[in-house]
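Entry 14. Structure prediction run on the chain below.
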Amino acid sequence: MIYSVKVLAPVAAAFLIAACGGTANSEETEAGSAAISGEYKADQKHRYITFHYLHQGYSRPFLRWRDWDATLNWNAEDATASSVSVTIDASSIDSGVDEFDGHLRGDKFFDVENHPVITFESTSLTTTDENTGTMTGDLTIKGITKPVTLNVTMNRASFSERNKQYKIGFSAKGTVKRSDFGVDLYAPVVSDEVDLVIETEFEMSAE
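Output returned:
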């Protein structure tokens, strides 16, 4: 069986998430800018942190965390001055197999009894073009903190007249080594490298 990952975080962290410049593919309304500066929260109905790894060379299972939250402090004038914070309930790991989920929560993997929370805090953002960039941050799993870098795309920024909310949507990908966080049981039979795929919509009320 397997192990598992790091987020984000990246986390991660998160996922988490954020920060590329520009507002391409956005729409503006009389309500104001498509992506005004401010604090945005992850839309609980539209946010996903998933990861996958190579299982003994046979397949690449996809897992996720069901319960997590993230805050984006968006700077519309300078995207690189934005930041992201992600908090994950480690016990919410979901492989689709109950027995395996129990193993992942145990002390040989995420040890959720002693380390119930996984966190990601961005430390820097760099834009690569109008809507893409890289985000580096500190991912903490089982009390171990390591830097993780994600490639980020801002998909859309707009104002929703229906919900009276500003929304920004991001996609992010990155790779981490589970051995960096003490979650390396069965490596290298089960790959040490874990690929993260994060999809997140952030929203801020206009009221």
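Confidence is low (pLDDT under 50) at residues 1-32.
Filed with the rest of this week's runs.
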